[in-house]
Amino acid sequence: MPAGMYNFQHQNSHQQHTQHHNALQQDHNTHTANSSAMGHHQTFSSGLLQNSTPSFAPTSVQNGHSTTTQGGQAQEISGHWGDQLQLYKDSQRAHMQMVDHHQPHHYARSKAGDNRGLTSVTAPVQDGDLETRTRMPTTDDHFVKRQDWNNMDLSGQGLRVLATPLFKYDFLCELYIASNKITQLPTAIGQLRHLKLLDASNNQLTQLPVELGMCVYLKNLLLFDNNIQTLPVELGSLYQLEMLGIEGNPLDTATREEIMQSGTKAVIHRLRESARGENDIIPCLSSD
After folding, report:
1. Based on the structure, what is the number of domains in the chain?
2. In-domain check, residue 270
3. Residue 264 is part of a domain; what is its CATH number?
4. pLDDT in tens, 80-122
5. Which helix (H) or strand (E) holds 73?
6. 175, 196 contact by CB (below 8 A)
7. Which bin fits 113, alpha (ψ -120 to 50), beta or left (φ > 0)?
8. What's the pTM?
9. How many Å is the maximal CA-CA distance in the chain?
10. Is residue 196 situated within a structural domain?
């Protein structure tokens, strides 16, 4: 092959090799740029997905209290309502023992140890001792009949009515008439002025007598599992009432929610204000 022809072919081959090398370098640069863009796209997309995904982590309940839902928001149960629910469970348990297992006088049996050895004796009057004594007719005004027992349990006996002589025991501080078939409380209940606890749960009560408002020392009024729908405004006189047990009754929604959220004291205050409002009403006089 002539030398000139060889040099031309060699130069041409060298140029083609250089062009091919440049093309490969360009392809490599293009691939690197595309990979960088793709990585940026993945990062951007991942960020969008991460920001747009809702969180379904449950909200923790503080202090271990159960919550109820109202309007889609968690609401913590008040301590007062928690105490009521516990008393309600205790009442149901006692009712089961008395009715299903035929073991009446549940509360008397539970307090038997406290009442053991108590008797009624006559002793001189002392200042500040009138709360534990009941004055009885005697020939000597310097003596009183001291009453050491102050609770009575008539629960679980199938009673339908309460006999009148019961209300002569006006020294009673605790009266249990739960788990009977009583349809109404007599108006004479107002005579038991020293009552601090009245348990009338698991009966057939539909209403409460206004005279119950005369038992102003009541601290616990338990009415679980009855058919009571409304409360008389006269209960507003129960200034010392700490627990109004209404669970298991078809009570109006407003009163029930008020007890759940604000407690017994709030209900008693509202009833007292309602009673005052009724007493302040002045009848309209005719122009004639």
Report:
1. 1
2. yes
3. 3.80.10.10
4. 999 999 999 999 999 999 998 888 988 888 876 665 655 544 3
5. strand 73-76
6. no
7. alpha
8. 0.64
9. 163
10. yes
